[in-house]
Design goal:
Layout: H1 3-27, H2 44-56, H3 61-68, H4 72-84, E1 88-91, E2 103-106, H5 108-130, H6 134-151
Antiparallel strand pairs: 1-2
Helix pairs in contact: 2-3, 3-4
């Protein structure tokens, strides 16, 4: 592929990502707690950690570090706070396993907050989608299918 075309496609992709980020900020991310403001007790980072723990099931700090590309020290602080607030729980391996490993999983409270957040996301997105005309809805559906096929979705 010629360099000019690759550059043009790269710019279009960047424009898409920035537009999506802006839409999310305006329509959903403002819900999260930033300096005591927002409709949720969680920060965006805390929510991301809960989502990833849910996707991975029972995991370690190292698993989260790999998936979220965040340092383990930074992650440990946030995870400890989520454990303290009852969103996550730590479990320790049996005596046969490496006792240095600590597993993290969602609690019922963590699952409840994720369910509520998913419901808000669906509501916000539903309003957006409903306001598109029929052709744009079809284009959007096809575009999502194609993007998911290209990038693969590891979160169900």
């Amino acid at each position: 592929m010629e360099e000019k075309k690759v550059n043009a496609i790269s710019h279009q992709f960047l424009k898409f990502i920035l537009g999506l980020k802006h839409w999310l900020q305006e329509n959903y991310l403002k819900e999260f707690n930033i300096n005591g403001k927002g409709n949720c007790d969680l920060t965006g980072r805390q929510f991301s950690i809960l989502v990833m723990v849910h996707a991975l099931g029972c995991c370690t700090i190292s698993d989260l570090e790999q998936q979220l590309n965040v340092s383990s020290s930074s992650l440990s602080i946030v995870v400890s706070k989520l454990v303290k607030e009852g969103y996550l729980q730590r479990t320790y391996p049996s005596e046969e396993e490496d006792r240095r490993k600590t597993y993290i999983s969602l609690t019922q409270k963590g699952m409840s907050v994720l369910t509520e957040a998913y419901e808000r996301i669906i509501k916000v997105f539903g309003e957006f989608y409903s306001n598109l005309d029929e052709k744009k809805q079809k284009d959007f559906e096809e575009g999502l299918e194609k993007l998911n096929a290209i990038f693969g979705s590891s979160i169900q």
